[in-house]
Design goal:
signal; alpha+beta; FAS1 domain-containing protein; FAS1 domain; FAS1_domain
């Protein structure tokens, strides 16, 4: 009996001693992970930024492993890192820092990051990363639906948590560039034709419902005779400003568009419809919000068109229109240089192929990196 009591006491003391062991600071933790040597080497170039990270509390760092860095550096998107573009490198690192300490994720979440407006982001509260929990790991979706997965167990440090991931996150690009790279060339060309590229790219906190190429092709006969005013009305009817409607937030509701008229959001058996159009790819993150790809072009003159989930593809909202042999508006649109999974329906959370070759994002503001990171640190320490 005495032996048993002593054994239990020893076990309890060992457990308390283990709990009492201080957690390492961020620099120490990272330097002790051999699979993160590339990351620590790059972070060593920015001691001020590392100092800011180390002083923050309640953060989660998504740390790309060595293989992820090697793949990224050999891509067109990684050229800026290889050329030591300090502002962009720091922006990339900032996008890997989540605002909050997350050991795990129990449900799909869109988590704000250290990447704050106005540089490379125009989303109130900071650009987000989508976290999708799985059986053995968490998938993190970034720009162009690029997918990085966590590897191993989360690591704790004095300021929060580190998750090692197998790919470098891609900073979301603006709407027009995303449309090109995601092969939504009909939308990209239509925006160019209506001279709306700068307008849409410059909006804050947007939700864009972007018709896929098949949707434009299906109403091809109705498009050549549109005036610029008509086309502008149609395109701005697909844009909601002031609300970033990630899939987790979309419900049965009505939203006012930039055009002025309302669209109707309907959720039926986990499928999302916008008027009569079905969302076929959700949650494509962009610099100023989110894009959902839909299978029909919305018509502001037919706002009462309703969803029919029994149909594989909804009826076009333009009565009497017939299909074209080519995708309208695509003449002169640049050829995509990246890959994104926008041709199949992934459901509410999206699916992805790797987008390591994505073009790097364009700045959304003129502030320097020092101002960006100083502001970000203040936000996270409020």
């Amino acid at each position: 009996m005495l032996f048993k009591s002593l054994a239990l006491s020893a076990l309890a003391s060992a457990a308390l001693a283990q709990e009492a062991q201080p957690q390492p600071d961020l620099t120490t933790l990272l330097s002790n992970q051999t699979e993160l040597s590339n990351l620590t080497t790059y972070l060593g170039l920015f001691p001020d930024f590392v100092g800011q990270l180390g002083s923050l509390q309640n953060i989660t760092l998504l740390a790309p492993n060595n293989e992820a860095f090697a793949t990224f550096l050999n891509s067109s998107a990684g050229a800026a890192l290889a050329q030591n573009d300090s502002a962009l490198i720091q922006a990339v690192f900032s996008y890997h820092v989540l605002n909050g300490s997350y050991s795990n994720f129990s449900e799909v979440a869109f988590v704000p990051t250290l990447l704050q407006p106005p540089q490379y982001a125009n989303v109130t509260g900071g650009q987000v990363v989508q976290a999708v929990p799985g059986d053995n790991s968490t998938a993190f979706f970034s720009g162009l639906l690029a997918n990085a997965s966590s590897t191993g167990s989360p690591l704790n440090f004095t300021g929060g948590v580190v998750h090692i991931i197998d790919s470098v996150l891609i900073i979301p690009q603006n709407v027009s560039e995303t449309a090109i790279q995601a092969n939504l060339t009909g939308v990209a060309g239509a925006l160019m034709s209506a001279d709306l590229v700068e307008t849409v790219d410059g909006l804050t906190d947007v939700t864009v419902f972007a018709p896929n190429n098949a949707a434009f092709e299906a109403i091809g006969s109705a498009l050549p005779n549109l005036t610029t005013e008509d086309l502008t009305s149609i395109l701005t009817y697909h844009v909601v400003e002031g609300t970033v409607g990630y899939s987790t937030l979309l419900g049965n509701t009505s939203l006012q568009t930039v055009q002025g008229a309302n669209i109707t959001i309907t959720v039926i058996d986990d499928e999302v419809f916008v008027n009569s159009a079905r969302v076929v790819v959700a949650d494509v993150l962009v610099a100023n919000g989110v894009v959902h790809v839909i299978d029909n072009v919305l018509n502001p003159e037919n706002a009462t068109a309703t969803a029919n989930p029994s149909e594989e593809t909804g009826s076009p909202a333009f009565s009497g229109a017939s299909s074209a042999s080519d995708i309208p508006f695509t003449s002169g649109v640049p050829t995509p240089t990246a890959s994104a999974a926008t041709e199949s329906a992934p459901g509410a959370t999206g699916a992805s192929s790797s987008s390591a070759d994505a073009a790097m994002p364009r700045m959304t503001g003129a502030m320097g990196a020092a101002a960006l990171f100083g502001g970000a640190a203040l936000v996270l320490n409020m």
